[in-house]
Design brief:
By secondary structure, the chain is mainly alpha-helical. It is built from nine helices and three strands, in the order H-H-H-H-E-H-H-E-E-H-H-H.
Length: about 210
């Protein structure tokens, strides 16, 4: 997939790390080494937390609320329930909320993208399934990954364009303020000079009577 033109066009290591993070990373991957990534806004962090819930559902079909809350860096259970509710509404997961035992019971979750080592594992002999099935599964996963790659790149580029726009606006506003201040300063000095000249040329009537 690294031969795709859209992937080759990414020259920034941080953007590539961001792409990998949203393809198959987790919130823990983000907080483990945030310096490798661009700054994430609240919407991006929310998305990453939801993707992390999906990844956790692969390993355990009963997820403890408290363990999830800690892994996602959330302040309270209410924030977690909002994330889960959105995932259910989007049909990213099918689950039951057991409020008595504070666990999330997963019935189904959508697939996420696969890493290279997972691809090798998939096409190996560990699974007792036919080669045709494995190749079909691999093909579907790669197509889904490519689609999400293009979506993430589009979102990143849009964020960069917005940042450049805000920067240009800020610079223009700064230049305008500096120009206005310079104009006011020039006018003040001119008025001050006129007053000084008038004071110098002014002759008191009392001095003439002498």
């Amino acid at each position: 997939m690294s031969d795709l033109p859209v992937i080759k066009s990414i020259k920034d290591d941080k953007l590539m790390n961001l792409l990998n993070l949203f393809c198959f990373g987790t919130y823990y991957d983000f907080i483990s080494n945030p310096a490798r990534l661009p700054t994430l806004n609240e919407q991006q962090l929310r998305k990453l937390r939801q993707l992390t819930i999906i990844s956790e559902s692969y390993q355990n079909r009963q997820l403890s609320y408290e363990e999830l809350r800690i892994k996602l860096g959330l302040k309270d259970i209410h924030e977690l329930e909002e994330l889960v509710t959105d995932l259910i509404y989007l049909e990213a997961i099918r689950a039951k909320i057991d409020q008595r035992n504070n666990v999330l019971i997963i019935e189904h979750s959508i697939g996420r993208d696969v890493r290279i080592d997972e691809i090798i594992f998939l096409i190996g002999t560990k699974y007792n399934v036919s080669s045709a099935f494995k190749l079909k599964k691999l093909s579907d996963d790669l197509k889904a990954w490519r689609s999400r790659v293009q979506q993430v790149i589009g979102e990143v580029r849009l964020d960069i364009q917005k940042a450049d726009h805000y920067k240009s606006q800020h610079e223009a506003h700064k230049v305008n303020i500096e120009s206005t201040l310079a104009s006011h300063k020039s006018n003040f000095l001119q008025q001050r000079l006129k007053i000084d000249v008038r004071s110098f040329l002014y002759v008191s009537p009392f001095s003439l009577s002498l």
